[in-house]
Amino acid sequence: MSKTVFVTGATGLLGRQVVRAFDRAGWTAVGSGFSRAKPPLVLKVDLEDQSAIEGTLDETKPQVIVHCAANRFPDKCDADPDGTRALNIAAARRVAQAARSRSILLIYISTDYVFSGAPGEAPYEAEVTPNPPNLYGQTKLAGEKAILEECGDSGLGIVLRVPVLYGHTETNAESAVNVLVDAVWKAQEKDAQVSMDDWSLRYPTNTEDVARVLVDIATKYLVADEARVAMPKILQFSSEQRFTKFQMCQTFSEILGLPLTGMVGQSSGSLSGAAARPYDTHLSTKVLKGLGIDVRNMKFEDWWKREMKAFKR
């Protein structure tokens, strides 16, 4: 039997890889976007329009939805709180309502920022009570609750929390990790004094690994059929490699063969004017392991060496 997946946010950093991964796995992968949509390859769907969502699902008839669409940059969330709530909460609820009424499995992409990240608390198990430190985390947690409320005890609503992501981008600014490469180049300018966070611990995870795990989750939960009612509803996936942003920049500078004298590590928490960041929100992958899903990750340095080889001096 052929299987179809519908991916929201398919023009974004993670969404593009999710479409590719399902396509490679033999699924029919249908993606949607809005401002960057390119029909017919990526459908233009307004997630503020319930009828548009329902019409698209009725036309494409997916067995699975992967909901990637979100405002995922903390500072941008603070700058546009109403727009952030509309996308991260209200749109998630609309998608969930449409999925539940059509018996479609829905996987909602969430974040490690639902946790406070206070020193000594990590790693966080999936069942730990969240306490987000900023608006971004608050809206993603509210989105989780909307999904689980709308899907109820049907077993059709699944949450997958992931940390900061990196991978192939259209521009480095798409990823909070990839954009650090630009900071390393900025640090080469005369008299540069680029400030960089050397306090918050991050677990950068590759979008290809997340996409692979999503295919495995979708397959396992679909095969389970009615038994999925008893399966876990909140899952977590993360790399185990730990870096501060400054340490990531050090890795990039070493690969590129560039000095980093024009960058200054800041060990006192969030940079001035930025949204609050947690100290350590490392996610436990225990639940995924219990389901028999492969949680291995590609090594951060190895991926970047391959990606950057054309730029190394």
- N-C termini distance: 51 Å
The general outline is globular
What is the strand content? 5-15%
Q: What is the helix content?
A: 25-40%
Query: What is the number of helices?
Result: 10
Q: How many strand elements?
A: 11
Spatial strand sequence of the major β-sheet? 3-2-1-4-5-6-10
Q: Let me know the average pLDDT.
A: 94
Helix and strand content put the structural class at alpha/beta
Q: Which segments are poorly predicted (pLDDT under 50) over 5 or more consecutive residues?
A: none
Radius of gyration, taken over Cα atoms and rounded to an integer in Å? 19 Å
Task: Please trace the helix and strand order, writing H or E for each element.
Answer: EHEEHEHHEHEEHEEHEHEHH
- Main pleated sheet: 7 strands, parallel
